[in-house]
Amino acid sequence: MKAIIIGAGIGGMSSAISLENKGISTEVFEAVKEMKPVGAAISIWPNGVKCLNALGMGDKIRAIGGDMQSMAYYDYQHGTPLTEFSMKPLVQRVGERPYPVVRAELQDMLINHYGKSRIHFGKRLVNIEQDQHGVTVTFEDGAQAKGDFLIAADGTHSVARPYVLEQSPPRRYAGYVNWNGLVTVDEAIAPAAQWTTYVGEGKRVSLMPVSENRFYFFFDVPLPLGLAEDRLTLKQDLKKYFSGWCPAVHHLIDALDPDTTNRVEIHDIEPFDTFVKGRVALLGDAAHSTTPDIGQGGCAAIEDAVVLADILHTHSLGIEDSLQRYQQRRTVRTRDLVLKARKRCDVTHAKDPQLTDAWYQELRSETGERILAGMCETIEGGPLG
């Protein structure tokens, strides 16, 4: 049995590794000639870590992951804690640690585990055909590939999605712009082993520890779609958006490098329940494009990969039957994740200012139990508990 995999991102590479672990051969095709991960870093929560453990990469993710021992929300004006608490109860309950990682390092980890020389780069998908015997794909350069089934892990701008859905669902602007990057750890900005978030005015400034004494940082600001800005004015723009915020936030702005800071207008796609058409299956952002507000986008793609390979390995009624079972297993879970992220996004970014103000007040009395309970519920909904 052979799988064609479109996309060498987190979902595609996790799928290739997971399928080959189950004895299914794979061939991976990537549109770009060189991988350049979008975004500086990513959170791999325990549900994702457990899946990587199952794929044989537990030691590798721990080697590149940050040491995140606690979590805190700070007042935006004064820089004083609204709430601070240990992550230890979460780890003890779910049985694994979270690891914030540099996205490029995670990507390299997956690609190197699979074998970079095996991946076909510069292959942009333009056509899919299938019959009862298999799937044939055609690329922009005229080359073709054949397999028994196709896994389309080609991202939020998926070329395969319209083929599977027979329509093109629009991307929905979430209402805010995110700037993200990496800086050296500086405890004048935040404690080294803590996930620190400054909140106020429907905005957010957050720092997470990643490997090699670095913080992953991001700024969120509710803004109109399509606002013209560039790197030349990045620091001035952030200074303007965060005028009146505490010294630590401005220290972060001073420390960041505009040339390596990403600016992203955040979108998602309304959840849909069709991931499969015959022998073609969507996976990762191609199937469930979400905002990053609960940090589960990458984890969900890794979950998809583990579930898909497990079903193909343990069921014997044929490929199309197995892919339908994958669809049944994943649509409910991923719909929940997309909508949870959207709900958190709206509260964080003051879609309803009264709800956001109420959340700020709740944080002042938060002991960590409610926040961690919600995170544990999301984590325990994964395929490995």
Structure write-up:
It is a single chain. The strands form four sheets. A seven-stranded mixed beta sheet has the order 5-4-12-13-14-11-15, with helices on both faces. It has a five-stranded mixed beta sheet with strand order 2-1-10-17-16. Strands 7-8-9 form a three-stranded antiparallel beta sheet, with no helix packed on it. A hairpin with a 2-residue loop joins β16 (276-277) and β17 (280-282). It is of the alpha+beta class. It contains twelve helices and 17 strands. Helices cover 37% and strands 26% of the residues. The protein has helices spanning 10-21, 46-54, 58-64, 88-94, 103-114, 161-165, 234-241, 247-255, 297-314, 319-348, 353-365, 369-380, and strands spanning 2-6, 25-29, 41-44, 70-75, 81-86, 99-102, 125-131, 134-139, 144-147, 149-152, 171-184, 194-200, 203-210, 214-222, 262-269, 276-277, 280-282. The longest helix is centred in the C-terminal third of the chain and has 30 residues, at 319-348. The radius of gyration is 21 Å and the shape is globular. The two termini are 29 Å apart.
